[in-house]
Amino acid sequence: MPVSTWHVPVWWRIAGACAAVLFIVPVDLYIQACFPGWLLTALHPHTTPPPLQDIFNAVIKQNPFLVHQMPCFWNVQLSDHTRSEKCYKDVSDLKVIHWNSPKKLRVKNKHVEFFRNLYLTFLEYDGNLLRRELFGCPSETDHNSENLQKTLSELDEDDPCYEFRRERFTVHRTHLYFLHYEHQASADHTDVTLVAQLSMDRLQMLEAICKHWEGPISLALYLSDAEAQQFLRYAQGSEVLMGRGNVGYHVVYKEGQFYPVNLLRNVAMRHVNTPYMFLSDIDFLPMYGLYHSLRKSVVQLDMANSKKALVVPAFETLRYRLSYPKSKAELLSQLDMGTLFTFSPEYDRRFVGFGWNKEYEFVVLPNAFMIHMPHAPSFDITKFRSNKQYRVCLKTLKEEFQQNMSRRYGFAALKYMTAENNS
């Protein structure tokens, strides 16, 4: 444990040990040591209970043999009043930099600019570089890793769709609840969470969605390490986002060349803690009050005792600056004027007969709506449109998926495949 000469409470008059860097504290030793510390500090005439750090100091004062004092470069503290320069002026190998101030990176310290740049540079490193060592000491066998490598080795690297097939087995680093989240589902079991996924180029939609949807939100963000820090600064600078504690931001770190849309959807859905979820797309802006409208529909349609899927009608606009309709009447007016339009393809006539139309009843909500907002084409849609091999591989994967479904659910499922697939 490093000792800091600047941790000196006025009424102790001694140097305090810093509890910020602890290495190994056996549980039984911790209990034996801390219990008398609690008694000692509780008997102190001051009325305010001391923090955990002061309890450690009390225990160490009585039992110095418990602690091995480490050099200060294991905990170089940067704040407005520390004497940190005395620690590192003769040392070239610093171990830990501690921003020990409520101001964090904004502290006034002689060399703070150097340490701040070093810290920010490290934050934006590609975290995949730290996942494993190619060379090092022997370690225990990781069976999951072995199985993954075996699966990957079975793929044909000469397959034109190799990268697509490999993507399925990519294990992405994931930071769940990247920002503080706090939400308790309502006691009436009608609560609904909006679920969506996005990348950095759709970040501007977050504030608008939060203004339109008052309920809980679960978002999966596909970001690089550097983009994650940009998102953090963006969120911390937004009154709208910082004013919401019921938005769960789950960062899935970039790896590979594709946008893993279904992985992101799954991550967002797994961390819904309400009975119902509203599956949306980040480019859709829900009508004002849709959250409360859906909760009322849950009760009115007896969703708890029936298999129903609610459908929110979607409209589209090409206007970046849209006077968003505040009612169904305004929506219909804009629809008549051509400001809004619908996009509903007809049903495919190849699907005939009986089957695949049961289990759930789809109910279109007559007084609910959302609007797809315009945006620049994404990088992946550009690749899809311009790269023939990209389109061929996606088509191949789709056909393999359909074949797998038919094997899983029986021969009858084959009639839902296209004539091309059956040939």
TrEMBL record:
Q: Where in the cell is it found?
A: Membrane
> Per the UniProt record, which residue ranges are transmembrane?
12-31
Could you name the Gene Ontology cellular component terms for this entry? Golgi apparatus; membrane
> Record's InterPro entries?
Nucleotide-diphossugar_trans (IPR029044), Xyl/GlcA_transferase (IPR051292)
The membrane topology term of the UniProt record is: Single-pass type II membrane protein
Keywords annotated in UniProt: Glycoprotein, Membrane, Signal-anchor, Transmembrane, Transmembrane helix
Calcium found in the keyword field: no
Spell out the protein name for this chain: Uncharacterized protein
Q: Name one GO biological process term.
A: protein O-linked glycosylation via mannose
GO MF annotation: an example: xylosyltransferase activity
Query: Per the record, a Pfam family?
Result: Glyco_transf_49
Query: Principal place where this protein is found?
Result: membrane
